[in-house]
Amino acid sequence: MMDRYAVIGNPVAHSKSPWIHAEFARATGQRMSYLRIEAPLKGFARTVDAFRASGGRGANVTLPFKREAFAYCASTSVRAGAARAVNTLRLDRDSPWGDNTDGAGLLRDLEANLGVAPRGRRVLLMGAGGAAQGVLEPLAKAGAAAIVVVNRDIAKAQALVARVAGDPGVARLGACGYADLAGESFDMVINATSSGLSDELPPLPAGLFAPQALAYDMMYGRDTPFLAFARDAGVRTADGSGMLVEQAAESFFLWRGVRPATRAVLAALRVG
Ligand code: ATR
Q1: Which residue's CA is minimally distant from atom 7 of ligand 1?
Q2: pTM
Q3: What is the CATH number of domain 3-100+243-271?
Q4: Cα–Cα–Cα angle for 86, 88, 93, nearest 5°?
Q5: Topology of domain 103-239, CATH
Q6: Which residues, other chains included, contact 204 with Cβ-Cβ below 8 Å and sequence gap of 6+?
Q7: Which of 133, 152, 160 gets mutated to test ligand 1 (max ligand atoms within 8 A of its CB)?
Q8: How far is ligand 1, taken at its centre, from the CA of residue 166, in Å?
Q9: pLDDT, tens digit, for every residue of 210-263?
Q10: Do domains 3-100+243-271 and 103-239 have the same CATH topology?
Q11: Domains of the chain: which residue ranges?
Q12: Largest distance between two CA atoms of the chain
């Protein structure tokens, strides 16, 4: 039987992960299958248990289960522990082990694909939910001059920042609400809110983007109001396709010990 992997989420019908992992497997000559599994909203653990019992060796976890996946694991990587969220499960050991490849995927997309490293830049991270939680610590360790986390619910942004601040090697961190952004400008603005799902634009002030800024939306396959706002302001934009492919490559490496090339897969994903 081929080694079995899956992406587990709800909803999961739209997920590009099966296609991406099939491409990686083909390119690296790995014999494996990769399914899509929709877990009931109240049935994540039992869905993973069943997949594991049927021979599943690993899984990606997507919305809304990344925090539940962290709780499910007997042990995790350090970076998953920092994020308190897991997007990659290894089920081929005595007990489930979890990692979080989202931050590494985002950084690799910024640095290798887009050529815009956070180092020395002023970064604004929008949102303080699960998506922001997954990437703040790796971003904060990537040498940014400063990172501000903005959220409608300021207490959530403050709590997120408090967990990361004080670690050795992290950027200067701040937390605020949208009204506090007036008069501020940033070299990199990353949208980790779910506002795009409902076609909403967070209340961003004019003048938010510094010259040469990059606007990055972690959502993929959707032209969000945030990306339109950035285009209107005349700055460079990127959606989360590159992050999706890079986090997948990192998961694939954890499972198979082989690092797949990402360029062709990303190019095909952007066209398709
Ligand atoms: P996810 O796991 O996708 O981050 P989540 O944990 O529900 O989902 O968090 C959603 C994030 O998007 C939150 O930061 C939320 O802001 P609040 O905490 O203030 O609610 C943010 N968000 C959702 N819709 C938004 C909108 N229209 N404008 C600004 N922020 C929004």
Answers
A1: 129
A2: 0.95
A3: 3.40.50.10860
A4: 110
A5: Rossmann fold (3.40.50)
A6: 178, 181, 226, 229
A7: 152
A8: 25
A9: 999 999 999 998 899 999 999 999 999 999 999 999 999 999 999 999 999 999
A10: yes
A11: 3-100+243-271, 103-239
A12: 60
**Residue of 63, 100, 194 with the most ligand 1 atoms within 8 Å of its CB, for mutation:** 194
Q: Which residues line ligand 1 (CB under 6 A)?
A: 127-132, 151-153, 156, 193-195, 200, 202
pLDDT(272) > 80: no
Place of tokens 């830049």: 121
Q: Give me ligand 1 centre to Cα 52, in Å.
A: 32
Residue nearest (by alpha carbon) to ligand 1 atom 9:
129
